[in-house]
Amino acid sequence: MTSELDASLTRGTRPVVVQKYGGSSLANAELIHNVAQRIIHRKGDRVDVVVVVSAMGDSTDKLIALAHAVTKGSKPDAREMDTLKSTGELVSSTLMAMALKSHGYDAISLSGPQAGIKTDTVHGSARIADINTRRLRDELDQGRIVIVAGFQGLADSGDITTLGRGASDTTAVALAVATSAERCEIYTDVDGIYTTDPRLTSKARKLAEISFLEMLEMAVLGAKMNPRSIELGLVYDMPIYVASSFSDEPGTLIHGGEYTMEVRKAVTGIAVDRNVAKITVRGVIDRPGVAAGLLQPLADEGISVDVIVQNASSEGTTDFTFTVTGADVQRASDVVRAQTRVEFAEVVTGTDLAKVSIVGTGMENAPGYAARMFSTLAEAGINIDMITTSEIRITTLIKRDEIQNAVQALHDAFELEKTD
Amino acid sequence: MTSELDASLTRGTRPVVVQKYGGSSLANAELIHNVAQRIIHRKGDRVDVVVVVSAMGDSTDKLIALAHAVTKGSKPDAREMDTLKSTGELVSSTLMAMALKSHGYDAISLSGPQAGIKTDTVHGSARIADINTRRLRDELDQGRIVIVAGFQGLADSGDITTLGRGASDTTAVALAVATSAERCEIYTDVDGIYTTDPRLTSKARKLAEISFLEMLEMAVLGAKMNPRSIELGLVYDMPIYVASSFSDEPGTLIHGGEYTMEVRKAVTGIAVDRNVAKITVRGVIDRPGVAAGLLQPLADEGISVDVIVQNASSEGTTDFTFTVTGADVQRASDVVRAQTRVEFAEVVTGTDLAKVSIVGTGMENAPGYAARMFSTLAEAGINIDMITTSEIRITTLIKRDEIQNAVQALHDAFELEKTD
Description:
The structure is a homodimer. By secondary structure, chain A is α/β, with parallel strands linked by helices. Chain A has 2 domains: about 10-190, Carbamate kinase (3-Layer(aba) Sandwich); about 270-415, VC0802-like (2-Layer Sandwich), CATH 3.30.2130. Helix content of chain A is about 35%, strand content about 25%. Chain A contains 12 helices and 18 strands. Chain A has helices at about 1-10, 30-45, 60-70, 80-100, 135-140, 170-180, 210-220, 225-235, 290-300, 330-340, 370-380, 405-415, and strands spanning about 15-20, 50-55, 105-110, 115-120, 130, 145-150, 150-155, 160, 185-190, 210, 240-245, 250-255, 270-285, 310, 315-325, 345-360, 385-390, 395-400. The first copy, chain A, has an 8-stranded mixed beta sheet with strand order 3-6-2-1-9-11-12-10, sandwiched between helices. In chain A, strands 14-15-13-16-18-17 form a 6-stranded antiparallel beta sheet. Chain A is globular, with a radius of gyration of 24 Å. Chains A and B meet through α2, α3 and α4 of A and α2, α3 and α4 of B.
């Protein structure tokens, strides 16, 4: 009886920690070996460890290049592309399990399907529908470290799906939720979340913590994290810890609770998106359905539209402006010119633009922050092209070559280098 | 009614052809593109086409090298190794399906598990237990070309298995049997089966046909085909056509029926195995269990033993000789020396040996062939070290540097350059 009781106490009662390692942390055999030692160290904390891995280095890009080479320029089939890309994470997950076993630790790799990750059938950007953790739980109960291939799942059709670029983060947070983990740890080539891009100002400071909502704005605006994983953390209240896979420096905890580690500032950080273009459709005959008429053809082509501004109508016509990534600008303006539902005078494009945003939950209900942002930029001689705001974010569109000037001015104005 | 009848006539009633393409035929995007065109050409024959692919070029070797790098010399886990290696065929199968689709042909890739290939759980050298062709049949019935990842299957545990080196041939023959295909076509970098290795004599002649039993002997003795696939063809009477993937030259049909294309010769071919070593255990105390006592420890170490000769006993001791591949000789002699069940005087090794065999079903019940072989070698001044025979094969062990001399003499003596 006693030994059975002991077994039930040790089985399934250890806290679970989910770790995720990105591709640059796994780019070669030596790095995989190093990460294996970090995992072993974490396992020593008497926790059950689930590790989600991305594909090694640039291996996914190499597979994509091969696909384009065999199809000679025509678009590779989405279903085949998903199975092809999923092999990158199978390689890294099996190598990691081998590396751990060679150190004498019991480990096993699970593909997305083996880890019970069920998705819808949208190849290339599938969403997780459900996770059946039975096998994962069994392996953990046997004391094993479980390595899960990120980024992939299984559709009801029996076909492999992928969750979209960078979605191994999403796999990790979803598995943390499904296993009721203590937290999800994302190890990457940056060592945490900073007040702004440290390449833009030496005063950039690493944050000890940030809220999900703030991080969501930062992620969308160019910080190196997958926004879907932050959303998932927000919805299921799963704390996400972001830190370097190359050092033991403390990272940043993204969470939904009260700030506990530092006094809360109104503005938490400055996000930058460097590669923005705008398209202005001038002289649009203003009638109901204009916005849909212009934007639906873009959506049909898979072009993401970001900031959208429609000027007040004068004399029956209006100007309609939106932003896209620099890579999409030519294709987007072609689509707009080719559509026939909306009459317009001309299409004008503007490139070499950037978005600079201040983000912080403390700005809610505090209108003074917008004014201070705009006056700071004005004093620095920076012209603002467009403005858009959310509850906790104020975004300005400026010229790309003024990014550094803008960030330094704003970082100083909001005293982000100070912790209180 | 008529259209339903038409549909039932076209569905599932087209003959099925299974093709297999080896890794050297798929080594880069251009070659994959070329093979896609060959497949399309075959599809034009109003047949259902199932294509089995190996991994691209040396990609499997690269994966194995990575595994050894991360485990730093210790043996990589067999289960992880199987999932790792299986990715090579997933890559080539998805790329082939994409290439076909880019030519406007409907195609789909299926992994081993998706193709319903169930195996036992012996990782690294699993055997096919069963094939559920439901999905494969569905895809063919929809007019699709089905590309199956060779070399892999699914164990009952839900884990990926591989069938062993070169076993994509086995996948192809097994699928041909399971789909009641007309025949299995193996396309490779050789253009058929020759009377002997063409590098050894310019008189070597490509055979239009060869029997399963003869091919089995040739395959075991070094011809470039997987013996298990020949066995499978023999057991299920599935004709196997071997030809070049780079040309349209006619190849060789391996089959179990009567010879129809050429007059049957007594000796069909000469097989050569270049890398043989022998181990002689001298002064073995002769009592029951000697052979098992010497060979079981070798089997336990995974060392394959080939020709075995035990000399007649004299004065209570005997000499026991067997051959292994050159790569295994040091390990094998160590194992024999370390075993304690059999007492012996000394272990002597001989290296740089080769096996030269004549093969032909016509030799059954015709003892004159052995005598002609031995006298031919004697006239050529070649010393025979060991002899072993089967129903349709006579094998001699000779010095490696006498291979060419032996093959040319035998090819002439049995008039293999002539078709009648």
